[in-house]
Model the fold of this input.
Amino acid sequence: MSVDELLRVIRNSENSKAVSLAKLRLFRALMNEPEQELRTRIENSSDSVEAEMAEWILWRNKLDKSFDNLIQIVRTSSDEEKIREAAILLGEEGYMEAVEPLIRLMVDTPNSHVREGAALGLRDLADQRALKPIVETIKRNPESASTFVYALETLDCREIVEFLIALFVS
Done:
């Protein structure tokens, strides 16, 4: 699908899954565009979704991925999308010193999107200290368990097998 077709789906569809899929495809399409094309989209677009996504991609592409910068974003930013992305990148970059801050972020934040980002960062770090906090987060938020169960994939879950079976059965 072209960018215009994806934007049409995002604007007009009443099917939330179709909208989510179109946004994901739009993100992937825009991620492959050169910086100047993204800037042109921001300047010329009449569609806020397109412009905001292009701005976000530019931000992400230029982001300093050092531990100090990413942890600073997690601790001080008011932009939940940037906090989520920084949390994910802390894991992707392998910053083991981020385990405790990511656990605190996952447990303390009221924003489900940020919680999921912290869990994804923890997944990549594969540190067993995250097991119990992830399980507790699942218990508090069973409606959004899928991302947290995915985060458990890299951990030794033998001690929570019964919990996981009960979760899947329910």
The radius of gyration is 18 Å.
